[in-house]
Amino acid sequence: MASERLFSSSQMQRRYDEVEISVFTPKFALVPRQFYNSASAREMLGEVADLSPVDTVESVSVPQFASVLLYSDNTGGSLPRVIAEMVMKTDGNKVSPLPEIYYMLSALDAIGEYNKIVASYIDGYLYLVIAQGKTLLLCNAFPAQDFTTAEYFLFLALKKLQLNPEMSTVYFRTPLDEEDEITLYRYFKNVEQI
User: Which of helix, strand or coil describes residue 137?
Assistant: First the structure.
């Protein structure tokens, strides 16, 4: 949606009970709480992500995995922050934009199946979180110029983790076009949008 339409849309003028503003950034790392040190957060993230000198590093707690999510908003942060300033919750509180991977990790709790596969595909990246029961097995982003490449990374991860897609449901947080959804149905027990 173009910015002039986005800011004048009725959705931006209302208040909501719950609001999630996702920032799609592949620059993230999940660090066990006992190893996290706020003074060395940039150095820690820099070990796994290519940070530019202007990248800021932020963190958010992920208590269900006793971890801290380090991330850098490589979009420059302006649009998500402007949207966060405009959209308010019914209680009057503002919302902070968080990385998509944070919301994906949070979505695991709501999935009742033993094999939990949550994915998002946008802007040339597949974001993927896989867990079995309460055990997190994978939390990563893969560069994928097209959806076929994204599927390759998805199936490679499942093979490495010895998970059978025919016995699993894959949950996507980003919209899938009909063709991509049909392709996934060939391999998975079910494909859900959350």
Answer: strand
This prediction's pTM:
0.88
DSSP 3-state assignment of 69? strand
Question: Taking the CA of residue 57 as centre, how many other CA atoms within 13 Å lie in the half-sphere pointing to its CB?
Answer: 24
80-83 long-range Cβ contacts below 8 angstroms, 24+ apart:
80/21, 80/22, 80/23, 82/7, 83/6, 83/12, 83/21
What is the pLDDT tens value at each position of the chain, 194 positions in all?
555 666 667 777 677 788 788 889 999 999 999 999 999 999 999 999 999 998 899 999 999 999 999 999 865 556 666 666 667 677 877 777 899 999 999 999 999 999 999 999 999 999 999 999 999 999 999 999 999 999 999 999 999 999 999 999 999 999 999 999 999 999 999 999 99
DSSP character at residue 94 = B
Strand, coil or helix: 142? strand
Rounded to whole angstroms, how far apart are CA atoms 126 and 141?
A: 5
Nearest alpha carbon to residue 56 among 33, 32, 25: 25
User: Strand, helix or coil at 2?
Assistant: coil
Q: Classify residue 79 as exposed, middle or buried by CB count within 10 Å of its CB (0-12, 13-18, 19+).
A: middle
